[in-house]
Amino acid sequence: MKDRLRNHALIKRINRAHILNTIRLDSPIARAQVADKTGLDRKSLTNFVNEFIAEGLVEETGTAQQGGMGRPFTMLGFKKHLVMGLEIASGSVGGVMMDLYGKVHFSHRIKDEGINTSSAEMLNAVKGVYRRLKSCGEVYQGVGVSVQGVVDHEKGIVLEACNIPSAVMDLKSALGKFIVEPVHIETSSMVGALAEKWFGMGRLSEDFIYVELGGGIGAGIVSRRRLFRGTGMHAGELGHTVVERNGVLCRCGSRGCLEAYASEGKILEEFRRTYSMRIGSIEELAELPRSKTGKILKDAGTKIGWGVGNLINLFNPNLIVLGGRMIDVFGDVLVPAVSRGASASSIKVCMRDVSIVASEMSDPIVRGAAALVLSRIFEVEDF
Ligand SMILES: [Zn+2]
After folding, report:
1. Full-model pTM
2. Ligand 1 centroid vs 257 CA: distance in angstroms?
3. Which of 45, 110, 190, 204 has a 20 to 30 A CA-CA distance from 145?
4. What order do you get walking across the sheet with 82-89 strand by strand?
5. Can you tell me the mean pLDDT for 113-138?
6. What are the tens digits of pLDDT across the range 267-276?
7. Ligand 1 centroid from CA 216, angstroms
């Protein structure tokens, strides 16, 4: 009996998600077309639609005549709700307000290096972006928050954040002091994967991996359209896979980790050591001729490729999307170098299935943060 009730509840959730996604992808759409696309009978569909209207999620957007004959169709669409996504990144806090179709209506970003080191400044910046966006419209369902670091997403605690030490805290409780809506916190590599899955190159892919290259190196693994998290929810720590046995010491305490060679900070360090030049940021490095920076970047890209090759062997994805600040600035050198490294370290049967590409999204993380909320509305299970 219990099983039957559970199955019934699950089927209801699956049908609910199916209808909502049909409206999301094909709106404006007539009730009759939703019934055809979902395969549900008219009576069940009417019950669901009445439920959505009562919840204030869906509305009848008017009527349309098709073919000039018969009764006009009632069209369905979402009410003009906006969800919020926030991004706590190194030196900046950004945010967007997005409708239920995924369109960004408002965005705002505060840049301040003090965000990285002072918790008060970081929280103040988040508060500033949140309040500014909230003045544009009511927030529906909740606020998704991305943080560059290791996050316990269930508790909303940031366990580690090498580039933003100010964020290491019970972030959910701290944000709850001024954010009145439910807050969902997630690590940026997972959020990047979610962004690619919802809006980017992973839209049509069942199994793909997003690799974030920036201050840290992480992977968001999507398997059968779901994020793969692992037991402790820390799956995807690509930066701490070993690429040099007995290599240089990594900040995690191990030796030879990928991140100890190919993170933004390590590439800058290697450049300063080789050329004895004072270069403060990756943007400054980008201004130098490639004849100076090329070899260091290629070597780093090859090592990243070794790590990516291991992912290809383990997960057999059809797509690897490279994203993050390093790709924004040095994608032209890094993408081919990563591809070469991956070819050298993965077996042919896995490598022939996969494309390795640079992300084409602008501002993916902040959009992915908003998708943390959309996933809760449109997907059946934890994502
Ligand atoms: Zn490490």
Report:
1. 0.89
2. 5
3. 204
4. 104-111, 92-99, 82-89, 139-147, 183-187
5. 94
6. 999 998 888 8
7. 10
